[in-house]
Amino acid sequence: MASQNRLTELFAHTDATGLPLQRSAPLLRVDGLSVSYGPHEVVSNVGFQLGRGKSLALIGESGSGKSTIARAVLRLLPSGGRAAGRVEFDGHEILGLPERRFRPLRGRAIGFVPQDPGNSLNPVRTIGAQAMEAAALVDEPNKAIRKALILETFAQVGLDNLQRVYDSYPHQLSGGMLQRVLIGLAVLPRPSLLVADEPTSALDVTIQKRILDLLSKLQHELEISLLLITHDLAIAAERADSLVVLKDGVVQEAGSTASVFSAPSSAYARKLHADVPALNPDRYRALRDPGFRFLGTKADKAPKIEVSGVTKTFTVDGKVLTAVNEVSFAVPAGTTHALVGESGSGKTTAIRLLLGLEQPDIGNIAVAGEQLAGRSPESLRAVWRHLQLVYQNPFTSLDPTWKVEQLVREPLDRFKIGTREERAEQVREALANVGLGEHLLSRKPEALSGGQRQRVAIARSLVLKPDVIVLDEPTSALDVSVQADIVEVLLSLQAKLGLTYVFVSHDLALVRQLAHTVSVMQRGRIVEHGTVTDIFERPREPYTRSLLESIPSGAAAIARAPHPRPQWFVNEEKIA
Amino acid sequence: EFNPALSADSPHNGGDITFLIDSLGDTWIPNNSAISSFQGHIWGHVTDKLLYVDADGKVSPWIAERWEQNDKATEFTLHLKSGVTFSDGTPLDASAVVANLDIWYAGRKSEGINPIGLFPKTYDHAEAVDAATVKVFFKAPTLGFIPTLGYHGSILISPKTLAQPAAQQADLSKTAGSGPYVVDSWKEGDFVKLVKRKDYNWGPAAVGHTGPAYLDTITYKLVSEPSLRVAAVQSGQADVAYNASPQELESLKAEGFTTATPRYLGFVNGWAVNTKLAPYDDVKVRQALQAGINRQEIIDTVYTSDWKLATSFIQSNVPGATDQSALLAYNPEKAEKLLDEAGWTKGADGIRTKNGQPLVLTLHSNPYLATSKSVDELIAQQLGKIGWKVAIRSYDVVTYGQKVKYGSPAVPAYEVTRSFIDAGTVASILTNANNGENWFALDESDKTLNELRDKIASAGSIESRKPLLDELQKYILDQGYFIPRTQIVQRIYVQSPKLKGEVYNGVAYASYYTATKSE
Amino acid sequence: MSKAYLNYAAKRLVQAIVVILLAYVFTFVVVSILPGDPITNVLNNPQNGFTPDEIKEIIAAQGLDKPIPVQLWTSFSGFVTGDLGLSMRTNRPVSTLIAEVLPSTLVLASAGLVVALLLSAVIAYGTQFLPKRFGQGLLRGFPSLFLSVPNFVIGLVLIHLFGFQLGVFRVIEPDSFWATLFAAIALGIPISAQIAEVLIANLDHESGQEYAAVARGRGLGQMRLFAKHLLKPSSLPVITVIALTIGELLGGSLITETVFGRTGLGSLVQRSVSTQDLPVLQAVVSLAAVVFVIVNLIADLTYPLLDPRVKLLGAPERRPTTADEGSIGISKAVTP
Amino acid sequence: MTLASASSASHVAAISRLTALRLPPIVALSFAIVALAIAWSLAPSLFTSYDPVNGVPAQKLLGPSAAHWFGTDHLGRDLYTRVVYGTASSVASALIAVVIGVVAGGLIGLLAGFFGGWVDTLFARLVDVLLAIPKFLLAVIVVTAIGFDTTNAAIATGVSAVALFARVMRSEVIKTRQATFVESSFLLGGSRWHILWRHVLPNASRSVLPLAVLQFGDSILVIASLAFLGYGDPPPASDWGLLISIGKDYLKWPWLVYAPAFVTIATVLSVNRISRWLRKTD
Ligand SMILES: Nc1ncnc2c1ncn2[C@@H]1O[C@H](COP(=O)(O)OP(=O)(O)OP(=O)(O)O)[C@@H](O)[C@H]1O
Ligand SMILES: Nc1ncnc2c1ncn2[C@@H]1O[C@H](COP(=O)(O)OP(=O)(O)OP(=O)(O)O)[C@@H](O)[C@H]1O
Ligand SMILES: [Mg+2]
Ligand SMILES: [Mg+2]
């Protein structure tokens, strides 16, 4: 075992006592680990083991302490973070090791793949210069050979145009390419453990799948143990041998992937399971399906929204870019139409056209029978009374200096609707509709969680009682569990008020849960459209198929279902 | 070979001195800068004058060896020393003097070369009778002509220099005078370095030396902070500090440094009161002002014992000045009584009012006298005690020049610092007759003053003029037209003890022509 | 060099020229607000004994009685053709006056800049290496302390301590090496504070960046991390700050030169201000603006060449998509 | 009993509020110093029994002592008293400067940033011009043009800060204008003016506040420098810069320089600290 020999060497010249090799011990063993930032303990008494060549996933909602654990293992906690407990690597306690003795392990023995590829490479140095640092960890004095090694690794992680990548600055590469580079740099010194902190959450679905496949492949080829961190249960189930479920820094449940996945024992794990759209395509059936009846009535009624032959081009740096190309779709009242497609396919542009925020070059848009093209801002205001937008990111779409009450009342004030008392009443009603209590009225956005903010944003659009709400990836900035809550709110409102939705998302699993009709966009064009059942069950286009295949389903876990007893250690007593 | 300069008792030859000065003035066009109180130092060494006026106002020959005038004082004849040359080699002869007289009178206004403002406006023309004789003609009797020639504005410049355009004349190194020193190098706002002229041989007899100067070089170096100037002299980095702060003089003397506080010939430092302006149109208020100032305290607080109490409104070294101390005694009771009589009653806050108006005095500190503000502040305290509300304004030189004028409605008291050569000219300045400056805004209204002025003007001799001058001084002070503060020392020198033998002239400039420096 | 870059450079150049010309007009207008000038002033002093007629004649000869726009035009057309005119105060060509004092100010300003750079580098990089508790806190306090001390006080203290007490330099020779050094220290200290503050903020920002942690995860030690990763990105934005402090160097020399008795642009301004010597003020302000604009132009033009991230100004705005989110915008702490 | 518990409860509440603000001790000290300076300027007579204008000439140039904390000046006036009485004008003039800078600069930046186009171009060139002239030189020129006194020095200082605020405000406005919440308000029926005043201004102003505080400290220094060069009020005014400037003529009695300098430094340092803290907590 090549990597094992190198490990022995490493410890041999860092550990003077020359402890005997504990071949039988797991590669990584975390025991009673607690981490606090200042007075706040964010990870409490966490324990797990990871065997050689195996993979383990840490899952949990945002803020549950996943990254913190990874950082503690790598001893890269930000200033102010303190770790207590035991972390054994290859049988040696490493938490208490002096930095001087631990440092040689970083990179050489423990590799790290970060969450956000965009920020993880020095922006003012070339990829090559930074790769050389990783190559320096390999005992190879010849610079030319080291460079060859780098290029070889780049090829291994599936990059093309190796020399160009080598000479580029980070900002000249796409997120997916950067993540490949980072994975390459991490595996290049042949570590025995790879810590990957949400390696795909910043990436597109299609790229996500490719990266995860790459990681699995490398893990097997190079016999690397993988500590994978993710908030997506489906990904974890597909990629890991075992799972540790965290909430608020405490282990909720742990075990082999198959057992946790198919029969979660803790309530939290069950909820986590239930909230993943891919695993529960029919979760909202009861709320959604009544809407299908409107589809049939197309002949009698004009559709609520009708977009026909719309094209929009932008000129950037002298180059003409067609963001939306001859797009047509129609949405009957009371139904949800989804626009799906990879990043940059023109979804947002399409709905901005629909709202009149951009003017189409050619084509017509009608909302409730009224043409939008060529309208003045004044007359658009009248349209907006009935047509509202919910933004993707609730962290930027609410004015941070305003209180919730003002935020929700603003549209009423602007359109001068009702008396003071009536407005106050409508504000409360709108908040109740999205499931928010009155105690939040005097808070500012910064005192709200992401989910709460998005509900406020929805309440804000609802308060005008519009017929149509356009939602641009309204949950993509949120956690799965929060997403599930929001989706539920949206669907029950539709059922109650008969709203029409245009829903933009790149998450096909989510679309499947809530939409009635779907348009699939690619490079500004609609390549396929139809009812949700048509698209998901009988996709015609290869592009649609590849999108569908990218949905992580936890299928691997299900396949492995009858799994032997977990061979890893869990703090059983901590799991209440 | 015997060299007299090396003999034991002859003054030590050679040496370089550095003179630290607070400003080097503005332009160096001779006419425009000759009366600047900073550039005067340099001109005093680089140029000569036709006559010499000493610290006591005595006029003696210099370049002009003798002079005569006709009875009506409209024609003057000057007999020049021969062999005098400018540093550019041009002889200082009759034609050179005529060229100077002409440009003093008229300047070349279109080129920016001003006339010398104080040169008699009655000048008609001058003629070179021969190389050593000049005849000067006036349109009207001009008694002041002779003293004017010793005044610091009347410097003799080479005709070649005078012929140059203004921008050339403004370059000091291109200017040639006939003085014991010539300009070696200079930089605007920084320094002027003078080197001695070896062939100089026409010094004024009155200073007791006529040959070349002893010191090799004099460097005037601008250091604008007074404390730095003094500290530099103390630490041996320079030889003379100009305009030290009076507070420091005592300790400097104690440390063995030479201090000099020469007084110029002129008016004392004090106020010309604007009698047009209420309440200073009331003689009692003016007299209260006269009695309400504690002049001794000014000297004790702001100055040192080197300053002298004012005994009149002209400095006591001016020929013709008489002692009027009795009129200037500090008497706050008398002042309060006078104010009570004038109807100014003290209110609860200690400020006097009349008809609801407070008794206000607005002072405009003279920007040319560094200590002026401190004196104003102190007087404000003194007058405050007897019920005056004193406001102090201070402007920079420019604004002061624009806003503060005799008789201006905003200026109840104009602070005078002013030199003159002959006391006989004083009376005519005070009223507005014959281009007078009308200091007290009296116009022609004060009969007594007009009568005295006319009598003084027509006085035939110094002796007959003397009692009239005495009467004038008494009258003006008693009327409270002029409120003296102290005798003025406008130039303060702190000097290394190694440097000796400098001479102060009638306008209190130090000349180092006769000075020597020991090792 | 790309076409976009040349376009950008040309645009910036035109802007720079416009700013310089406008600065000239601006100064003229501001300084002309006050009725008065050095010539009239001298003439009005009663001690000089000019009659009103004489005064009128002299003023007319100088063209000072012409309407302001005419004077502005005369002066402006002179400026454009490189003629700065005559100083009203000294009657000498303004260009000569400036040429006399410029070297001294240039020496002082560049020495001040060097001092500021050294000092800020020591402070800022010191904060990265000194032990957390004691030394760092102290060093981090320096910039705000430096920013709070009036620069004339620093000058006075230095002169007293080193000029008089210790006799390191002669006060009356302000152009000597040591005197210049101490003047440069007085001038450089407040400027070092600004640079150090930005540098520290950048270093903190950069060392908190994900890439720093990732690089450490690659096994880099503190020193190598600093030298290879943090130094460049945190120092690059300082170029902009340095360019902006050029103005401070010139402005600061006004006081430093007064305190140290140096003859330079600053003291020339002082003398010209107190006599309202319009042509000189005009020239000095325009010169300062020219220097400032050129230095900043150079900084703006070189920065994109040094920092690969910078998007050129004036490039059309593009709405970011999610793919761009988390991509690298340049949001550096360039505190004013 | 109940009273005591009530007061202790409110005491506890006050402390917890303080800890909620998480005021570091240095910042607390800075606030105390600034508060003292403000108290000095509002009611100087509460802090000293001496007269700031009239001294005892016989007691001139005394060193610091229990009777005269900062010693006496050349006219026998208590220097501490003069510093205390000079605070009002020093602080008020700095305030004037900041208000001018913030209001004029803020308005220019707001309009330029919000309307863009030729308005922006016009203001941007004006701001460029103001920026191109060294700040202190600009202040000197302006004060020359409008006359030498402390208020004018304050105005000049304010004018020289206009460009800074205009620039910061403009970039903040542009940033805010492009924020999603602004478009959102537009969609919800907000007019241009509504958006400008209610959304853009409050958000853009947030980073202007710490800058204004910082500028306050800086203005004290600039005005002091102007006073030092003689462009402020004459004595018997006792602005801090003037006091230092007078003191430098009496360097034999160094407290005349160091005492007012110390007060100036302490105040400006405190103000800077507070600004830094505001920036951090924002
Ligand atoms: N540097 C820090 N200082 C203080 N608290 C921190 C710091 N970093 C993280 N925390 C807190 O620690 C907790 C755990 O954070 P951590 O980043 O480990 O969560 P996570 O599970 O990785 O979340 P995510 O899915 O959002 O990445 C959170 O409450 C977070 O606010
Ligand atoms: N205002 C604009 N100016 C120039 N290009 C634009 C503009 N808006 C969008 N684009 C470009 O048009 C294309 C489509 O963008 P759009 O935002 O509609 O994609 P999207 O499908 O919403 O992507 P994502 O899923 O990342 O949000 C992209 O290449 C984008 O860069
Ligand atoms: Mg994380
Ligand atoms: Mg989008």
Automatic annotation (TrEMBL), chain A:
Q: Where in the cell is it found?
A: Cell inner membrane
Membrane topology, from the record: Peripheral membrane protein
> Which segments constitute the ABC transporter domain?
28-273, 305-548
Q: Which NCBIfam families match?
A: PRK11308.1
InterPro entries the UniProt entry points to: AAA+_ATPase, ABC_transp_ATP-bind, ABC_transporter-like_ATP-bd, ABC_transporter-like_CS, Oligopep_ABC_C, P-loop_NTPase
Q: Where the protein is mainly located, per its record?
A: membrane
> Known Gene3D superfamilies for this protein?
P-loop containing nucleotide triphosphate hydrolases
SUPFAM superfamilies the UniProt entry points to? P-loop containing nucleoside triphosphate hydrolases
One Pfam family hit: oligo_HPY
Write the protein's name.
ABC transporter ATP-binding protein
GO function terms (MF aspect) = ATP binding
Cross-referenced CDD domains = ABC_NikE_OppD_transporters
Q: Does the keyword Kinase apply?
A: no
Task: Could you list this entry's UniProt keywords, alphabetically sorted.
Answer: ATP-binding, Nucleotide-binding, Transport
Which family, according to UniProt? Belongs to the ABC transporter superfamily.
TrEMBL record, chain C:
How is it placed in the membrane, per its record?
Answer: Multi-pass membrane protein
* One Gene Ontology CC term in the entry: plasma membrane
Checking Pfam families in the record gives: BPD_transp_1, BPD_transp_1_N
All copies of the ABC transmembrane type-1 domain together span 102-303
InterPro entries registered for this protein in UniProt: BPD_transp_1_N, MetI-like, MetI-like_sf
Q: Which keywords does this chain's UniProt record carry?
A: Cell membrane, Membrane, Transmembrane, Transmembrane helix, Transport
> Could you tell me the superkingdom of the organism this chain comes from?
Bacteria
One of the GO BP terms on file: transmembrane transport
Regions that span the bilayer:
12-34, 101-125, 145-164, 176-200, 238-260, 280-299
- Provide the residue span(s) of the region labelled Disordered: 317-336
Which cell locations does it reside in?
Cell membrane
Q: Which family does it belong to?
A: Belongs to the binding-protein-dependent transport system permease family.
Q: What is this protein called?
A: ABC transporter permease
Q: What is this organism's lineage?
A: Bacteria, Pseudomonadati, Pseudomonadota, Alphaproteobacteria, Hyphomicrobiales
From TrEMBL, chain D:
- Which GO biological-process labels does this protein carry? peptide transport; protein transport; transmembrane transport
**Where would you find this protein in the cell?**
Cell membrane
Could you name the Gene Ontology cellular component terms for this entry?
plasma membrane
Coiled-coil stretches: none
Q: Where is the ABC transmembrane type-1 domain?
A: 87-275
Q: Which PANTHER family match?
A: D,D-DIPEPTIDE TRANSPORT SYSTEM PERMEASE PROTEIN DDPC-RELATED, OLIGOPEPTIDE TRANSPORT SYSTEM PERMEASE PROTEIN APPC
Q: What name has this protein been given in UniProt? A: ABC transporter permease
User: What species is given as this protein's source?
Assistant: Rhizobium anhuiense
